[in-house]
Write a structure and sequence with these properties.
Blueprint (H helix, E strand, L loop, with lengths): L3 E4 L2 E4 L5 E5 L5 H9 L4 H9 L1 E6 L6 H10 L3 H4 L5 E4 L4 E4 L11 H7 L4 E5 L5 H4 L6 E4 L8 H4 L4 H5 L10 H17 L3 E5 L3 H5 L5 H19 L3 E5 L5 E2 L9 E3 H9 L4 E4 L16 E6 L4 H12 L4 E6 H8 L9 E5 L4 E3 L15 E2 L7 E6 L17 H7 L3
Parallel strand pairs: 3-9, 3-10, 7-8, 7-9, 12-17
Antiparallel strand pairs: 1-2, 4-19, 5-6, 10-19, 11-18, 13-14, 14-16, 15-16
Helix pairs in contact: 1-11, 9-11
């Protein structure tokens, strides 16, 4: 009998070779296209012939936490509960980061494979994701950001810096992602895990557009590591948590709608609360500005909600306004963890709360960010041919482990 596990109503076959799932943070598909065209990513270019190159949709909002957790649970946020990097906890009546594993409502494929006896490893760039990705995981799990603090007892590995041969990089650097790949390669060679999950940072993508020298250098680095992993016999499955777009006007200045300021002026202070789920501990490169926001109404009645919705919809740069029920159904979100309203910004528009709450001093280059529908399309790339996949099936980034374990030749 073929060995398999069942997680969140999906069945996964046991890996036939070390399988490495890579979440390339902020990987708009054009980054790979431009790197391949420039001739700096030959391995990625070769996957059109030796592997499979497809596209899929990430979950909404197109932010880091909900998508990484969707990938490792194989399910949307309505199942696992993580619907942003940041949210308003109505029970605690507080705005909090959604990094604590107590907010996770479903088991991960990683933990369940380890529980079934598999060797599992997780390396993430930023430490904010470590507790979520490593929830109940008996295996290797550490972040590049705090690799020097990893211990065998707590993280399943020690002496990481000597194994990797790199110092701990700055959290605001391309090297933080390189450390993830270097660590992944070292673990592949030494531990030969059945399943490994690597998650990078989108520092480069926030600062540099596809085809720029800096972006191409980043994908060239990544290409070299992937080539080595391929050479070690690993199955590679690549996707992204979200895409990336410029959020600027015609002369490159940030194109921002400060929703809290607009709502306060129209309906009075304290009448609404704007929450920006992109908010996390690392806001230098995006200023906590993305294309998705949720809004809580302090006096909830149908007339007030309709009035607020109509006003927001009239603002230039707003793509769509949805009620809680509409958003939770359309985007498969947990209704108890989003506001009364969900607001989406247009492709070139970022949504803010109040101007005074955003420190934009770190934006030394034109603003690039994500969160909306325009950043939903992401790559799904494998170094093997797919088989038995219905051409009419809507592919999602959280299908990547299913495809890697159940549908590769």
């Amino acid at each position: 009998m073929t060995r398999q596990i069942n997680v969140n109503s999906r069945t996964y076959q046991w890996p036939s070779a070390p399988t490495i799932v890579v979440c390339i943070d902020g990987c708009e598909q054009e980054y790979i296209n431009q790197a391949v065209l420039a001739g700096v990513a030959p391995f990625l270019g070769s996957l059109r012939s030796i592997g499979t190159v497809l596209a899929g949709d990430c979950v909404m909002p197109s932010f880091t936490n909900p998508n990484n957790l969707s990938i490792v649970t194989g399910a949307p946020p309505s199942v696992h509960g993580i619907c942003g990097n940041f949210f308003f906890d109505e029970e605690a009546q507080a705005e909090v980061l959604m990094n604590d594993a107590k907010y996770l409502r479903a088991p991960t494929i990683l933990a369940e494979m380890a529980r079934a006896g598999g060797r599992v490893a997780v390396v993430t760039a930023k430490d904010k994701l470590r507790s979520l990705l490593g929830h109940r995981l008996e295996g290797i799990c550490f972040s590049a950001e705090k690799a020097d603090e990893a211990t065998l007892r707590q993280h399943g590995i020690d002496n990481v810096l000597s194994r990797v041969g790199m110092p701990v990089p700055s959290v605001y650097s391309a090297e933080l992602s390189e450390f993830v790949f270097a660590a992944g390669l070292a673990i592949l060679r030494e531990e030969r895990p059945d399943l490994m999950y690597l998650s990078t940072t989108d520092y480069v993508q926030h600062k540099h557009a596809p085809g720029t020298a800096e972006a191409n250098a980043f994908y060239s680095m990544m290409d070299c590591y992937l080539q080595r992993m391929h050479g070690e016999g690993a199955v590679l499955a690549l996707t992204a948590d979200h895409g990336m777009n410029a959020k600027t006007n015609a002369i490159g200045r940030p194109n921002i709608v400060f929703l809290q300021d607009r709502l306060d002026a129209q309906f009075g202070a304290q009448s609404t609360r704007v929450i920006l789920p992109i908010t996390d501990p690392y806001v230098v490169h995006h200023g906590a500005l993305g294309s998705y926001a949720t809004i809580y109404l302090h006096d909830v009645d149908d007339a007030r909600q309709r009035a607020v919705m109509a006003f927001i919809a009239s603002i230039n740069g707003v793509e769509e306004v949805l009620t809680r029920s509409q958003a939770s159904e359309r985007f498969e979100l947990p209704p108890d963890r989003i506001g009364n309203l969900v607001v989406l910004g247009e492709r070139l528009t970022a949504l803010g709360s109040a101007a005074g709450k955003h420190d934009l001093s770190g934006l030394t280059v034109p603003l690039r960010s994500h969160g909306g529908l325009s950043e939903q399309k992401v790559p799904l790339i494998f170094n093997r041919k797919l088989k038995g996949v219905d051409d009419t099936r809507r592919l999602r980034n959280f299908d990547v482990i299913d495809l890697a374990l159940n549908h590769l030749a």
